[in-house]
Amino acid sequence: MNKSKTAVVTGASRGIGRAIATHLARAGYDLAICCRSDREALEDTANTVRSLGQNCLTFMGDMGDSSCVSAFFDKIRHNTPDIDLLVNNVGMSYVGLLQDMHDEDWDRLLQTNLSSAFYCCREIIPSLLSRKSGKIIMISSVWGETGASMEAAYSATKAGINGLTKALAKELAPSGIQVNAVSCGYIDTGMNAHLSAEEQNALFAEIPVGRAASPDEVAEFVVQVATCGEYLTGQILRLDGGWI
């Protein structure tokens, strides 16, 4: 029997992260997952992974805090020597005028959406380099490519993710490591729960497919990217129903 690969998925208690963890388990990956505050939901994700026959390690902590990230990866390394895939999924939204945004809101958004990816990449890269293999997948947004009114700060953090993806891919490609980002359009998650039915319908009218994507559709795409060969790297892969 082939040894299971191991994937790390941040922000896996709900939504896209939970779906990614579940689909990776179905694809034969053992999982290490984390979230910041909802232990019950995280354990529910872990139980789903285990019901699919895969191991699952859980960790509670803020991935925007480098000390928490170090503790998470120390726990992973204590349980498994090799990590094959990192999915930087943890994220949060901020809707509002830029001039109304407080310093603490900006700092929180930047730490959660961008610093978390930097910290996790920094932790995993030495292990990937030692084996000259592995993949990193960032969960980004179409707003990181085009920008969105009332979401300037959020757009900036996702543009940062895209820049990190492209640059890190060039840095790591000679060592056989691939780095790509999935640029999500409108996904049916709690992050978009603030939109009214009228606002959602207006968005659907702009999307050629005519609807939101489900978290499962994002997860299926992430699994496809995870199984692609080494020539796919440094790409911002848009999943938006033809919207942009």
Biggest sheet architecture: 7 strands, parallel
Order of helices and strands: EHEHEHEHEHHEHHE
Radius of gyration: 17 Å
Q: Helical element count?
A: 8
Distance between the termini: 44 Å
Overall outline: globular
Derived structural class: alpha/beta
Oligomer: single chain
Low-confidence stretches: none
Total number of β-strand segments?
A: 7
Largest beta sheet: strand ordering: 3-2-1-4-5-6-7
In words, what does this structure look like?
By secondary structure, this protein is α/β, with parallel strands linked by helices. It contains 8 helices and 7 strands. Helix 4 (103-131) links the parallel strand 4 (85-88) and strand 5 (134-141). Helix 1 packs parallel to helix 2 and helix 1 crosses helix 8. The longest helix is centred in the middle third of the chain and has 29 residues, at 103-131. The chain is globular. The protein starts with a strand and ends in a 5-residue tail after the last strand. The model has no long low-confidence stretch (mean pLDDT 96).
